[in-house]
Design brief:
With 175 residues, the chain is mainly alpha-helical. It is built from seven helices and no strands. It is flat. The N and C termini lie far apart (46 Å).
């Protein structure tokens, strides 16, 4: 029964995982903490899922499935997280030959959804109590650049990281 709950949780994650990467981490946390992973264990789960090859959602599904149900749990959770995207791609391929889509409108819709998921992830991962206002400011600045300009979000994130490193090099007393 627990394996079915894990399969359902990761199937739901797979439905919205087209944003990939960090945009899905908040939803993963909502689904797995505290049901199958502790708050501390979630930090380890994300670190391992991010450092191993493949999408974060896929790696997290495999790890949670393995921890809770062994090899069959890992297989079931892994397949559940890719089931909807695989079906959606197959359906999109069929529909693409029959329906003409407004590509810019579709891209804008996907971008908006991804940005919303990134905001949710930022909210979930913000430290509670001991808030670093410099990191918060850089994160919000990167988010604003991604939303309100045509700058690639990767450059905004890398720039914020470089700025943070530079400020800490110049002012070692910063928290």
């Amino acid at each position: 029964m627990e394996t079915l709950a894990i399969v359902w949780a990761f199937f739901k994650i797979g439905v919205v995982s087209f944003g990939g990467g960090w945009s899905i981490v908040g939803l993963i946390k909502t689904e797995v903490v505290p049901r199958w992973v502790s708050e501390e264990g979630f930090s380890s789960l994300v670190a391992i899922a991010q450092s191993t090859p493949g999408p974060v959602a896929l790696n997290a599904a495999t790890m949670v499935g393995w921890q809770r149900g062994g090899i069959l749990g890992a297989l079931a959770a892994t397949l559940s997280v890719v089931a909807f995207p695989a079906l959606a791609i197959a359906l999109a391929g069929i529909l693409a030959t029959k329906v003409r889509l407004d590509r810019p409108a579709l891209q804008e819709s996907l971008r908006s959804g991804t940005l919303a998921m990134m905001a949710m992830t930022l909210w979930v991962l913000l430290p509670r109590g001991n808030l670093d206002f410099l990191v918060l400011g850089l994160g919000l600045g990167s988010f604003a650049l991604a939303v309100f300009t045509r700058i690639n979000p990767l450059w905004a994130i890398l720039g914020a990281g470089a700025l943070n490193a530079g400020l800490h090099a110049l002012f070692p007393a910063l928290p």
